[in-house]
């Protein structure tokens, strides 16, 4: 069953189009992760936070990615990284037009 994963962390650098330019290669690599379905990239410049909402095919693939991604973010110098994995209530989500 597909799951949703949420990640956020303090971010004070580039935003918007500049972030998209700098993170293009990383974004493309995410497409090759086991079980990856999609990602919404999130940013809140006012609160200096960035992250994403992901969909993976299984909890195991999401947790594996979260572990690897957390370590990668730490190597990039980020700290206070938060990540959680949630099961999806597909019936209610489809009712509310979720991209399932």
TrEMBL record:
Alphabetical list of Pfam families matching this protein: ydhR
TM segment ranges: none
Keyword terms, alphabetized: Monooxygenase, Oxidoreductase
One GO MF term: monooxygenase activity
Domain of life per record: Bacteria
InterPro entries: Dimeric_a/b-barrel (IPR011008), YdhR (IPR014910)
Keyword Oxidoreductase: yes
Annotated protein name in UniProt: Monooxygenase
Organism of this sequence: Arenibacter certesii
